[in-house]
Structure formats: structure tokens, C-alpha cells
Amino acid sequence: MAEIVMPRLSDTMEEGTILRWLKSDGETVARGEELVEIETDKATMVYESDQEGPLTLIAAEGETLPVGTPIARVGEASGDGDGNGGLAVASPTALGQETPVAAAAPPAPAPSAPAAAPSGDGAGRVKASPLARRIASERGLDLASIAGSGPGGRIVKSDVEGAPAGAAPVVAAAPAVQDVATAKGATTEVELTKLQQTVARRMAESKATIPDFNIQIEVDMEECVRLRGQLKELARGGAEVAPTYNDMVVKACALALREHPNANGSYRDGRVLAHSRVNVGVAVAADGALVVPTVFDADAKALAERVRAATITPPELGGGTFTVSNLGMFGISAFAAIINPPQAAIMSVGALTRRAVVTQSGEIEARSMLTLTLVCDHRILYGAEAALFLARVRELLQAPAALTL
Fold first, then answer.
1. What's the rounded mean pLDDT across residues 342-358?
2. What pLDDT, on a 0 to 100 scale, did the predictor assign at position 289?
3. Distance between CA 309 and CA 316 in Å, rounded?
4. Which CATH code, of 3.50.50.60, 3.40.50.300, 2.40.128.270, 3.30.559.10, is assigned to 211-404?
5. φ, ψ at 127 (rounded to 5°)
6. How far is Cα 229 from Cα 181, in angstroms, rounded to an integer?
7. What angle do CA 352, 358, 360 make, to 5 degrees?
8. Which residues does residue 284 pair with via DSSP β-bridges, in sequence order?
9. How far apart are CA 294 and CA 249, in angstroms?
10. Could you give the CA distance from residue 242 to residue 151 in angstroms, rounded to a whole number?
């Protein structure tokens, strides 16, 4: 039998969580067939089998395991020894069945005894997978009232989904004297997903280690608005065919990065690394966290949709040399994003709005304006070079025909 192990689906992945098996225990799987959904530190991805044959599941849904840990076996048993080629029998808990009793185990206790409560971790905290905790929190269920079928009594996804609707939610007892601890009312602990934990760690690292500064510039987008309108007309009203304003900003940044290589660099161990490729990451909100797929030759909008649909591939989540973050669709006029280390800078894009502007001829006109904020790592970029880079981006957007270069 061949083992399938927890794959490394990103360059920073150390462990993964089995969210959902797409094949059942005992079912025959083909090479290249979708096998399992795995939550990594960056996104939720579907992993395809690299083996073919009958499937034996080892890891249960909801389990979090280190990279390289066996999660399933594929193929027929050799027939030697115990009939499994010397390999342990896979746990059927992935299918919601009871855990099998080992051959040397003592007899089970009488059925009249009540079911044991899930075991804790020694610190009074119920043992449960992150996914099980999240589902329990969403349904208002008390984990302490749910029996776990995972290893060591750990509560997994299937246990929570199978819990009766009447399982009591956690309710804080009313104290006789209100103090600081109880003044906030009942408190529910929400455990972060792997993706959220990674974003939190990297953003804290960024703010703690990068001496950053930011500069802003106003861009007259009137020509971009006119160009996009023309492209939509040529596409017979197909707005999905015409590039978005964010696409235009990404392209303008890419062209300007070629002319200002330091803005396309990164800082590592006291050295500035110059990158030959211009790979612009586009920040996308997904599953309550931030994912940054990298635009090589792909359309940014298509990438965003694939991130939310969990079909993004590992290479498209790495290799970025610069990042664009856009909150304009939420009506935010301007903001300063946090640099994605080890990159040199990040571009923050505000909302495109109609404003009264004084033209060069002294007249007041309503123009489509956009605020761009460039946040820079001062170890790589200095004020003057950053200002020149930002001015070049504005120049390209105000003459959008240059974006076809």
C-alpha cells in the first residue's frame, strides 16, 4: 500500500487541517482525482491523489496534522502478517464510525454506564479541532456537552454536526457582585483558522520589524473612466470583459516597477534582493482573512474569484514582489495598508469618486479622482525614489493608453 501524507501546499505551511474527504473509506480513487479539502496557513485547497487504488482513510475530518504525516493509504494489502502489510489499520473515525478496539484492549464496560465527557487538555479546556470549535460557536453549542470521537476524546467536525439541537449553549452564571471580569457579559472564545493565524503573525512581524513610511497622491482617473466605457461598448455591454480600475492600477504599478527596481525588491538579513520578475500580489478578502494571490499573466478578477472558490493553486499564492490592496469598493477614500514582508512596499487604493477640481485653466470641474497611498520599507526605499515611483504610476493612469505597452 502507498501512503498519502499531509502535503506542503505553500512555502510557509507547517501543518494542515482535513476539512472534508471527497472520497469515502474503501472507495477506489484514480490518479489525479480530487481527494480531500485541506485548510492551510494561506487558503483552503483541494488536493488531488497522486496514487490509484482502494482508499483507506487514516486522518479524520477536522484533524490538524504536521506536513508529512500520513493521512490515507491507497492500494491493496500485501496479505502478509496481519493482512495489512505490517501497516496499522486506518481509523474509520473519518467516516463518523466508532473507534475500533485494539486486540489487546480489556473488555468494554457495561452499557449502563453514562457516556464519558470529552477529555480536557490538562488545563480545563475541552479538546476540539479548530473547525469543530468554529461550528460549535456558530450554532451556539457547548463543547463540554458533546462527546468526542477523535483521538483521546478530541471533538471533531462530525461530532458537532451530529450534536442534538438542544445541546445547551455556554451561558455565564450571573455573579452576585459585578466586577471587571463579568461586566462584559457572556464571553465566547472564537479560535482563529490557520489562515487567520498566519495573517496575524505576519502582520505583527511587519509592524514590529519594518520601519515604514507612507506617501499619498491624487490621480485624475477621467481618462481611465472614458477608456473603460469605450471598452465596455466594444464588448457589447460586457462589463466582465472590460478591465476594472483595480486592473489598471495593477498594470500601472507593474510598468512603474520596471523603471524603479528598488520598489520591486525585498529585504532579507541586511541585504536588498533585486528581483528580475515583476509579480504583483492583489489582496483578496476570503473566509474572514486576507489572501494575496500573485498576478503573473492572469487576470486579477479571475484570481480573486478562484481564491473565494478555493481553487487557487499553491504557486499563485507565492512569488509576489509587490502588493496592491483596494478598499475602494467599500467607500474608503484612503488608507495605509501593512507591508507584506519581505516586500519593499504596498499600494493602497481608495474609492473612485467625483470631486470638484480646479483645472490648470483655473476652472472648477467635476472629475473622477482616486487617492493612492504607498507604504514603503525605509530600509529599501527612500522618500525621493518612492515619490518618483508614485508619480510615474499617476502619469500612466492619467494617460491609460500607456497601459497597453
1. 94
2. 53
3. 14
4. 3.30.559.10
5. -80, 120
6. 57
7. 115
8. 291
9. 15
10. 52
Question: Can you give the residue ranges of every domain in the chain?
Answer: 2-95, 211-404
Q: How many residues does the chain have?
A: 405
Instruction: Please say whether the beta carbons of 73 and 2 come within 8 A.
Output: yes
Predicted local distance difference test score (pLDDT) of residue 14: 81
Half-sphere exposure of 149 (CA within 13 A, CB side): 22
Nearest to 59 by CA among 314, 260, 51, 67: 67
Same CATH fold assignment for domains 2-95 and 211-404: no
Mean pLDDT of 23-28: 90
Which has the closest alpha carbon to 286: 193, 350, 348?
Answer: 193
Residue 150 corresponds to which cell in the numbers above?
Answer: 477523535
Cα 60 from Cα 47, distance rounded (Å): 15
Spatial separation of the C-alpha atoms in residues 260 and 60, rounded to whole Å:
50
Residues with catalytic annotation? 378
Would the pTM count as exceeding 0.85?
no
| Residue 289 CB contacts under 8 Å (≥ 6 apart), including other chains | 193, 195, 196, 199
Residue that is written with C-alpha cell 480545563 in the block: 124
pLDDT 10s digits, 191-228: 887 778 888 888 888 999 999 999 999 999 999 999 98
d(C-alpha 99, C-alpha 159), whole Å: 13
Q: What is the mean pLDDT of residues 31-49?
A: 84
C-alpha cell at 86: 505490517
Provide CATH code, domain 2-95: 2.40.50.100
**Residue at grid coordinates 480513487:** 29
Return the DSSP state at 401.
Answer: G
The C-alpha torsion from 56 through 47 and 308 to 344, rounded to 10°, is 140
Q: Which residue has cell 464588448?
A: 235
pLDDT digits (tens, 9 = 90+) for 363-405: 999 999 999 999 999 999 999 999 999 999 999 999 998 887 6
**Segment 236-260 mean pLDDT:** 83
Q: Residue 181, exposed/middle/buried by CB under 10 A (0-12, 13-18, 19+)?
A: exposed
Closest C-alpha among 64, 53, 58 to residue 13: 64
